[in-house]
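User: Show me sequence and structure for the first protein, then do the same for the second.

Assistant: Starting with the first protein.
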Amino acid sequence: MFKNLKYFNFILTPFLFLFCISLNISDAARIKDIAAIKGIRTNQLVGYGLIIGLDGTGDKSGTDFTTQGLANMMERMGISVDKNSLKVKNIAAVMVTANIPPFARIGNKLDIIASSVGDAKSLSGGTLLLTPLKGVDGKVYALAQGAVAIGGAGAGDAGGSKQKNHLQVARIANGATVEREIPMQLNGKKSLTLSLLNPDFTTAVRVADTINTSVGKKVATTVDSSALQLNIPEEMQASQVAQFIADIESLEVIPDTKAKVVVNEKTGTVIIGDNVTISTVAVAHGNLTVTIKKDMDVSQPEALSGGQTVANPQTDVNMEEEKVRMMTLEGGTTIGELVRGLNSIGATPRDMITILQSIKAAGALQADLEII
């Protein structure tokens, strides 16, 4: 799973545990997992639709776009209605979204998601009416329709209500049918562009070398840190481009990554990647606790003396400093040694965040420190 890390730090914030695990797995990754062919991608579709048949949980009568949409639909069916006379408690307006994969053919099915855009309480039990799904170019690529499923339930009355999961977003498996194909022709191409998901010059060179070694000729050329040009062999250009891509994407490469430390101050989580090193530095971390206690000393006069009761405040100030050990990190210290050293001085995850920030400020942390 974590192929780019030799060590992976798990931090369980509630218990303040910090430990390091060495992963005995191959660092190599398939090219198909770290790169993609330019132009071969998923495209987004969107459409406006109506869900009918709701049990009084639809949009309220004041939702104009719902009543207008229903009136327009009735007009197209040859029924003339006044939108102001429509009651829409059993109808909800939704935006329907879907992803159309590359090379999708007419008749292929797509999963869709319908999200309420009005004030409907629930889409449970409804049916989505025929909805055209358009691409960014305004053309219709799929048609959606069907009974929705929300995976939740809710009930309530004037005295209260109870709800499980989210009720305003529904999903329809295979709810859309592809009606228009996105043109893409592989056979006949002389070259392709391979884009790395995480741009890196070292990784790009390794990918090019691996491809050229496998093919037996120089077909891959590094363009920059994120792109490689693949020149398809002449004997494969006519009808075997897909086979060429399949042969390339199954090759394994060891990707290179920048040394990085990611810190989430909200949760106290620290993730340290491979290749993180520490220059020579000494670390001491402790807390100074100041306790101020205030008591009231009451002076009570003797009986019949005519004196008054007086309250004298007594303040006690106590200062206690936590005893800590100094930890020295030699130059070239690895992540494993860093984690063991921080554990030795009893550092908690939040302590570790402060320590890493201080080491970075001192110029001794040879890695990018990213705070999210």
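Switching to the second protein now.
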Amino acid sequence: MKLPTGKVPPDILLERILPKSGYRREDVVIGPGIGIDSAVTRVGDKYIIISTDPITAATSLIGMLSIHITTNDVVASGALPRWFLSTMLLPKDITIEKLDEIIEDMHRNAEKMEMQIVGGHTEVTPYLESPIIVGTAIGVSDKYVTSGGAVPGDVIMMTKTVAVEGTAVLAYDHEEKLRERGISASVIKKAKEMIYKTSIYPEGRILLEGFRERIHSMHDPTEGGIFTALNEIADASGVGLKIFLDDIPVDEITITVCNALGVNPYLLLSSGTLLFTVERGYADTIRESLMKRGIRATVIGEVIKDKEKRILIDEEGEKTLPRQEKDEIWKLY
């Protein structure tokens, strides 16, 4: 059987990969699972939170993206990142100037987070068409948060808008196609600039330092977009969801780019958005706290008890919340 492009399907993960995780150690608090992006281990009275992610679909600013995408999972698990390692696989025609650009991006963005790059591996590899970076980020915390902590009655909130990363990647990698389809240079420029919003470190720090006890789950939407991430929260928590489509914020730039290329923004790479569930009475306070820092925060739904129900409410009424493991971006590659 040939595997599809993108994330390995959940049934393959459950049947063939997740059961084979080596020796089972008692200091592993959270191991691999569907919808779980970080491992949590215990050392003494502290939790070590570890996450790894590749940059594969993007070709521009991949040094910055490798920092943002990997550290996002650590932040969403309840820790601020301290250490970072990277494996860089480079195509044989790469220039030293391009390598310098990647390294400088990684250095500058790690420095902003007070995180040190402590190691990794770099090599020129045959058969690659573009660089691939696999990053690993590590943080330490007294407590941890998971995507599996949502409880009935929670409200579901998100920061920024959907498809932040996906909009920027499409603008960089398909600029010529967008121009051919009538999208203006100014719109493409604004779409590209969204790549600088792909970190959830700023909002994560505010939430962890001010509202940790009130937040029950957090999740960083990546492949499959906001709809897939919502399903992953439900999977991991054993709950149902009621989502209001009209309340999910979508930037006009994202709508323009996605319409031009024929992709669904709700199923498109969404790093830069933070999903979290919180006690109902604290939603307004949290929203105001984030808005004061210039970070948009929106209530988009609620957690319900019936785990069989994943409800999306739009102008036509109630339907099942879509789920698509293969990200929309792969339609264009």
